[in-house]
Amino acid sequence: MENVPVSAGLSSFNLLDERVFFKALGLAPGMILLDLACGVGNYTMAASPYVGEKGQILAMDLWWEGLETLWVRADMRNVENVHPVIADAGEGLPLSHWSVDCCLMATAAHILAQENALPRVLREIRNILRPAAILAIVEFHKIEGPPGPPLAWRLSPGELENIVCSSGFQCVKNLDVGPCNYLSLFRAPG
Fold first, then answer.
1. What gap in Å lies between CA 14 and CA 5, rounded to an integer?
2. So what's the pLDDT on residue 1?
């Protein structure tokens, strides 16, 4: 049976102010971005022009059907810098040490926290990020939804910061990127 994540097929991307989000993320041509728990790749596809032809986006998820959808979308649009990768982050990231410039995890941290897997995944991310690279985490504000997960699952920026910083990252900033979501940026050790 296929691994299907709790939120398979859902995306917070359409809830964001895309301009604010990408300005804060700071992607540049030639960068290597890991979109961890990418689902069908809405963030991936939107980020593709920012890293350009010389950059790469490693779109990783354990949900094969979502990656297949992303592959078809990228192929139809002739997007060549997107590389779908099937992997369970809780079991390890199949990437080289210090190989990624930025890791994006959009609305997945709360699920990993519920599964008690977030600290383990953060250690994996720390290993593949280049020194002083950025970990960008999008989460839902800790308010009643919808949209988003139940209130009990949501992480406030302070709660998220405590978890991520205890794994060796340094908080750079937190900012609202839409009425439902915030973006937290962390710097990897180095």
1. 19
2. 38
